[in-house]
Specification:
Strand content: 35-45%
Number of helices: 2
Number of domains: 2
Distance between the termini: 53 Å
Number of strands: 12
Structural class: mainly beta
Shape: elongated
Order of helices and strands: EEEEEEEEHEEEEH
């Protein structure tokens, strides 16, 4: 039997996720995405059972609070078809929500996909059951360095955990695949970052 600790999700890629913790001896580690409950994303803090292995600290299972029914996330390459219970029903332009976004193995090669990752996205338009969104990246990411994104100036007010940029890439997602609401752009950033017409 392992040790039960609370960890913070720092990365989701491929079929694995990475975490950090303030617990001595279990500062960081990884786990299988299929072991996570549905709807969690980067920045969430969850209780898990952790075991030490030769390859490092591994989260072996999510530990739900007593009386909680858990739905596990689908495999990483599957579409998330159920809306998260906390999702806004009246989704609107300017909202920041979590979504699973595909990413390329080679920057600038949209035909060469490596996997997908759950990350915050900015809703820039809504069309029936579809949402047009722009992925949000760390301010030190390749997207920012290559000039393919614009900085969110009021990132704290938007509910983000660190300085971020909005990608210029617009992707279409089914609204039912969107996860929890992170926050909403400040009006000053709305005027700068949300186009009046989505390409």
């Amino acid at each position: 039997m392992g040790t039960i600790i609370r960890v913070e999700i720092t990365e989701m890629a491929g079929r694995r996720w990475r975490w950090t913790s303030e617990t001595d001896g279990f500062r960081e580690g990884s786990g299988k995405l299929s072991d996570l409950p549905d709807g969690v994303g980067i920045g969430d803090r969850i209780p898990v059972e952790v075991a030490r292995t030769r390859s490092g600290n591994v989260a072996t299972r999510f530990v739900p609070p007593p009386g909680t029914r858990v739905q596990h996330s689908p495999p990483d390459d599957a579409a998330v078809s159920r809306p998260h219970p906390g999702m806004k029903r009246g989704l609107s332009v300017g909202d920041i929500v979590t979504a699973r976004v595909r990413f390329s193995a080679k920057p600038g090669r949209p035909d060469c996909w490596r996997g997908s990752k759950r990350r915050p996205v900015l809703v820039v338009a809504i069309d029936g059951h579809s949402a047009h969104v722009r992925p949000i990246h760390d301010s030190n990411s390749f997207v920012r360095r290559e000039g393919m994104g614009r900085r969110i100036r009021r990132w704290r007010e938007a509910g983000l955990r660190k300085p971020s940029v909005v990608s210029s890439r617009v992707i279409d997602l089914d609204r039912s695949s969107l996860g929890r609401v992170v926050g909403r752009l400040h009006d000053a950033d709305m005027r700068r970052l949300v186009p009046t017409k989505v390409p």
